[in-house]
Design goal:
This protein has about 475 residues and is of the alpha/beta class. The chain has 3 domains: about 150 residues, 5'-nuclease (Rossmann fold, 3-Layer(aba) Sandwich); about 70 residues, Beta Barrel (Ribosomal Protein L25, Chain P), CATH 2.40.240; about 210 residues, P-loop containing nucleotide triphosphate hydrolases (Rossmann fold, 3-Layer(aba) Sandwich). It is built from 15 helices and 18 strands. The strands form 3 sheets. Strands 3-4-2-1-5-6 form a 6-stranded mixed β-sheet. Strands 7-10-11-12-9-8 form a 6-stranded mixed β-sheet, with no helix packed on it. A 6-stranded parallel β-sheet has the order 15-14-16-17-13-18, sandwiched between helices. The protein is globular and about 75 Å long. The relative contact order is 0.10.
């Protein structure tokens, strides 16, 4: 029976970068067994020093391995993972306990770490011909070399939220054209706090999510609403505020399209604590967020100040260390903030230069720029926290940032998942994709995917054709 179990389950050989990416990957392979070559332990040891995320992950992976090994004397027969993984993993962990003969082609010298790991996989396949042995690596070239040698290799998929980012929640759903005909008999409507509500019924309600936007643009009068309540086969829809009209402008900014209108509705709603805005360059993510932040800080006095942070990943060659304080070091990364503050600083012409300067000082005194590096352990009270370029954050970093929120704080994550600059992160495993998927349907969370660029005709055309 044990032999049949071994043949049914797979043996996954982990590359170092998998453990550096996610130390808990040791417990993510369900009923299958995992194998850690000696070279992986050596590389973990080389990466353990420092305060970077990579070094922290190396130390955590070593701690997990130490915990597993210290409680087991018979390493050769495998270490049971069930007790250490809260029954999420039912397989065994095997560590390399013997030296394997070098069996690689002469073009792959064995003194290189990657090739030593490949040699281990090759020998495991020969030793266990009836079993599927698979190399798991985040390194594309490593996977290509493995396939060239004739054995299976895979990327580490466990941290992927979605296989296809086209399936990512958009925050809005178009209603069918016959929606009102179907609802004609059972529809109920009422006014409450100057808002109009509708209770609708039918199978369509089962697919709605709390705070999702629904719309119908065909017919005599366009319909834009937000789902506020869901029961078994009915839902309560609230007509949203029209921020495209000049009288409802937010710090002088009006919505230029449907999605921007949706975005301003979630940004200006004090009952929504967490907002994610996803969209290509020029869709207005930062401008809308800053405008709503200043309106709620300076006009409505809901929050005390804006705190803005972002992942500092350079697009080109890194320019090295930057002089000055934390805020001065972050200034070159905050060009988007400066550009948008210039747009928002629209003082009256008769106010003159002094008036303009005074407005700039007031705005800047309420906008703080912080580095991600110093966020651990902090608590923000009554703040408007903006996380820009959130697509470059891992799910773990995203969790660290969002859990900084204290009472009265709103967190807004902005990003473009098609523009990831961090190694090992993909559209499916980005922290931004992760939080959009996990927070959908929460009564105090909102998400909008912005579709149309509004920066300029040049920017829109470049986004389309390049």
């Amino acid at each position: 029976m044990a032999k049949k179990h071994v043949q049914d389950t797979k043996l996954f050989v982990l590359d170092t970068n998998v453990l550096l990416h996610d130390p808990s990957s040791l417990f993510r392979f369900e009923e299958h067994d995992i194998y850690v070559p000696m070279m992986v332990l050596e590389e973990l040891d080389n990466h353990k020093k420092g305060v970077t995320e990579l070094a922290r992950n190396a130390r955590q992976a070593s701690r997990y391995l130490d915990e597993l090994v210290s409680e087991n004397t018979r390493i050769e027969s495998g270490i049971d993972l069930k007790a250490h993984s809260l029954s999420q993993a039912n397989g065994k962990l095997f560590l390399q306990t013997q030296t394997y003969i070098e069996d690689l082609p002469s073009a792959l010298p064995g003194n290189k770490a990657d090739n030593e790991i490949l040699n281990v996989v090759l020998n495991l396949k020969k030793a266990q011909p009836a079993r599927q042995v698979i190399l798991v690596s985040k390194d594309i070239n490593m996977r290509i070399k493995a396939r060239a040698l004739g054995f299976d290799s895979e990327d580490y998929f466990n941290d992927k939220v979605l296989e296809d980012t086209d399936l990512l929640y958009t925050g809005a759903t178009e209603l069918p054209e016959n929606f009102w005909d179907v609802q004609a008999k059972d529809i109920k409507s009422w006014q409450e706090n100057s808002s109009t509500f509708y209770r609708v019924e039918g199978p369509l309600c089962a697919n709605f999510l709390i705070n999702e936007f629904v719309y119908l643009e065909t017919g005599p009068r366009p319909f834009f609403a937000q789902v506020r309540q869901i029961e078994a086969s009915s839902a309560v829809l609230q007509i949203i505020k029209d921020y495209s009209h000049a009288r409802n402008n937010v710090w002088g900014i009006t919505a230029r399209n449907r999605e921007q209108n949706f975005a301003l509705n979630v940004l200006m709603d004090p009952n929504i604590d967490f907002v994610t805005l996803v969209g290509q360059a020029g869709t207005g993510k930062t401008l809308l967020t800053l405008a709503s932040a200043l309106a709620q800080i300076l006009d409505e006095k809901i929050y005390s100040e804006v705190i803005m942070t972002r992942a500092t990943i350079p697009v080109g060659e890194d320019i090295g260390f930057l002089p000055g304080s934390e805020e001065e070091k972050m200034a070159p990364w905050m060009g988007a903030l400066e550009d948008n503050l210039d747009v928002l600083n629209h003082t009256e012409p008769e106010a003159g230069e002094w008036g303009r300067a005074a407005t700039i000082d007031i705005i800047r005194s309420r906008v703080k720029i912080k580095s991600l590096n110093f966020m651990r352990g902090r608590t923000f009270l009554n703040k408007f926290l903006i996380i820009d370029e959130a697509q470059n954050l891992t799910p773990k970093q995203m969790k660290t940032l969002i859990t900084r929120a204290g009472p009265g704080t709103k967190v807004v994550c902005l990003g473009n998942i098609a523009q990831i600059d961090t190694p090992y992160l993909t559209e499916g495993s980005s922290g931004l994709t992760y939080v959009v998927d996990r927070f959908k349907g929460w009564e105090h969370g909102g998400h909008v995917t912005l579709m149309r660029g509004e920066r300029s005709r040049l920017a829109d055309y470049a986004t389309e054709i390049l």
